[in-house]
Amino acid sequence: MERVVRVVISSACLVLVFSCAALALAGPVERLADAELAARGKALFTGAEPLAGGGAPCAACHPFRALGITGGTLAADLTDLHEGLGEEGLQVVLGNLDFPVMKKIYADRPLTDEEIVTLIMFTRSAQTGTKGGASLFPLAGVGFFVCFLAILMIYKRRIQ
After folding, report:
1. Total domains present in the chain
2. What is the separation, in whole angstroms, between the first and last Cα of the chain?
3. What are the tens digits of pLDDT across the range 50-93?
4. Whether the model pTM is above 0.85
5. Which residue, 51, 29, 30, 31, is CA-closest to 40?
6. Of 47, 126, 131, 151, whose CB count within 10 A is highest?
7. Domain encompassing residue 57
8. Of 124, 122, 113, 111, which Cα lies nearest the Cα of 37?
């Protein structure tokens, strides 16, 4: 029985180590890049950073309920746009801007590819309600399991 407990604890420790390594290696760089792009997208959306072509910022006409942004009331609310269209759909819409009012405003001021990507990242971060952070729930579960098994093993030795 004690050998089984040791094998289980060793396996759980290996899972914990590899989970930490995966979070440490892959997660931070991607989250940082996503967070930076989303922050720039927010700046473009609100007008804190001007669009390259000189067009009006999105918030001049569009409301956005997420992330504490207030916008205009002339056009549709864009809060749930990422969920409804997805990234590919957003890329097509932002690349075209084929709406009556927007067509006139952006005819000579199209969005650049970089602006489209940052606006998409902004809507994605608003949709998830995070800044790209990873969940620590699985890692915490494994840690709790390892601690529980260690306490169980110590208690078993105490009884003998």
Report:
1. 1
2. 13
3. 999 998 899 898 888 876 777 888 888 888 888 888 888 888 88
4. no
5. 51
6. 126
7. 2-159
8. 122
